[in-house]
Design brief:
- This protein is an alpha+beta fold.
- Strands 1-10-11-12-15-9-8-4 form an eight-stranded mixed sheet. It has a three-stranded mixed sheet with strand order 7-13-14.
- A hairpin with a 5-residue loop joins strand 13 and strand 14.
- The protein is elongated and about 100 Å long.
- The protein binds one RNA strand through helix 3, helix 4 and strand 7.
Length: 422
Amino acid sequence: MLDPKLIREKTDVVMESLRKRGSVFDLEKLIRLDELRRELIRRVEAMKNQRNVTSDEIARLKKSGVEAREQIEQLRGLGKEIQKGEQELKEVEEQWEFLSLEIPNIPHDSVPVGTGEEQNVVVRTWGEKPRPDFEPAAHWDLGERLGILDFKRAAKITGSRFTLYKSHGALLERALINFMLDLHVREHGYTEVLPPFMVNRDSMTATGQLPKFEEELFKLSDPDYFLIPTAEVPVTNIFRDEILKEGDLPVKYVAYTPCFRKEAGAHGKDTRGLTRQHQFNKVELVKFSLPQDSYPELESLLLDAEDVLKKLSIHYRVSLLSTGDLGFSSAKTYDIEVWLPGQNIYREISSCSNFGDFQARRAKIRYKTGAGKTEFVHTLNGSGLAVGRTVMAVMENYQQVDGSIMVPEVLRPYMYGMNTIL
RNA sequence: GGAGAGAUGACCGAGAGGCCGAAGGUGCUCGCCUGCUAAGCGAGUGUACGGCUUAAACCCGUACCGAGGGUUCGAAUCCCUCUCUCUCCGCCA
């Protein structure tokens, strides 16, 4: 959500932001609703003021033993008037709020302007593409051959886009989760949290998944809950409707959770392997920061995520998303793309974003400054990393000519000391 | 699932139809005092929205005592519904 004052007073800035994103949002309609809303507020509040003033008078008269028939009569009709006005206001306010929740965040000045991912900018690469002297296989072939990934049976159990991990495959997934959590807790100073995997509608609205992206979410019908599409949702909502102390910031959390996504817009895309699943594991980094620190915090969060691949010695690149590719809630996003030799492509394995006060405003996460003012915090998050995609990166980058997979050095303590998956 | 208790400001906790935005305490801020890893004294300290303002502060107004409805001229206080927390019983991984 954007500051209503900003929309009202710096309309051109908001317009420009929408243009850069290629968004078709109806800003004029929102501004009209805002004006109508304020007009109604003025009317209703004037009536309420009259009610309060006269009510006080009644109280004074009664106290001094005088009947106040006339005044009571005067107010009898006013209550109904106020109710009518409030009803009208409520309707307008609901429309206004709904529309407000659908304006995307304003991109930061450092974000390149573009129409899509073609204008994303690669800001750095790390390591080099491996040059095996054999034709590297894709992880789905490796996984089925080794008996560690079973896509057919997962489809039987549930449906498409699910995976059954078996034996050392399951162990590798678990090892990566523990390795990542340990790294971020012990070396990067994050506090581990394990949140609920289902959340309510308010939480989904606070981080920006609702109301716009409901069709992407798995929904439970009985209680009105949703399966989380990322740990960002429950973890950011830890402080919803709270006022933090300035000295407590920044707060840094790391959480492992499964994630559930419908992938509604991706029919027929990435249908093979672990790339795009309805359920996948992710270790997520979340920060709450002072507004003035959030961009440096984004850089350090990105480095924390990159560190996982560095420790695993897997080649990757980092790109800065252009305005056309930027997520709805984000002001600035870096993607980390890992090299997959079996598919001969780079694939996103982490997305690190600064949301500015966009989520904090929706979630009402604030802090008190030394001067006693209450302000919105900035929220940030990034995958550290997507675990299923890391499994495929390990498999494809560490495969041997015989189809076995070497276990990266750092994972061996987490895998009973084994050095090869045969 | 059954029975009961509760939900008040950053936190704890009074309050039971008009004098309550809400006592008292803690915390925090400022000042004084003292002087040493602390204490004492005094003052101040909610949020949101609307108006005023070039903008802000100030000021004015409105709302908010879990959420939503109702009764009433008037509700933190009375009634109804819901949510959550706690205790006991039952059941259960």
